[in-house]
Amino acid sequence: MSDHDQKFTFDGHAIFEAMGHIKRVGKVRTSDLGGGSVFVVESTDSDGQVVTEIFAAAALFRLTPVTADVVAAIAKSVNPAPIGAYDLPARAREALLRMEREERDRNRAIEAGLDADDDLGDDAVPGDDGDDDDGYPYPAHADGEPRGAMGWAR
Q: Cβ neighbours of residue 86 under 8 Å, at least 6 residues apart?
């Protein structure tokens, strides 16, 4: 096997730079995924949570091996903070907060022993009798046969 055929592997602490503008500091290792080589980077965000990211090997710009002490010293200044609801545009933020409220309400209903989808009352549609025979999203034709998007009977 020639030097050219040997595969590069790495497993250690490093400053990982991808595509010249993404920088992470943490534990870096090479791996195979989907038939190709990747870098698996485990870094710590500003909240102390471990974040695992996978980068294609071709995305590597620079890999600088460092000690664990160096990683600990510079991780908060290099690794990004997690994305929060307030980093998003207004419509996306409102949608995310609404989904979080709905999930919280659903979990509370489940803990209370209710059917999370039927007994909350928040999702009630005026005039809906609660069964699934209304042909949504396509109403029944005059002959009573449900119709698909193109008008054909299903």
A: 93
Here the tokens at position 11 are 């497993």
Task: Find out whether 29 and 39 touch, Cβ atoms under 8 Å.
Answer: yes
Per-position pLDDT tens, the chain of length 154:
556 667 788 999 999 999 878 889 999 999 998 888 999 999 987 777 888 999 999 999 999 999 999 998 888 777 766 555 556 677 877 888 888 888 888 888 888 887 655 544 444 444 555 545 444 454 555 555 555 555 554 4
* Residue 141: both structure tokens together: 């034709």
Nearest CA to 41 among 24, 58, 56? 24
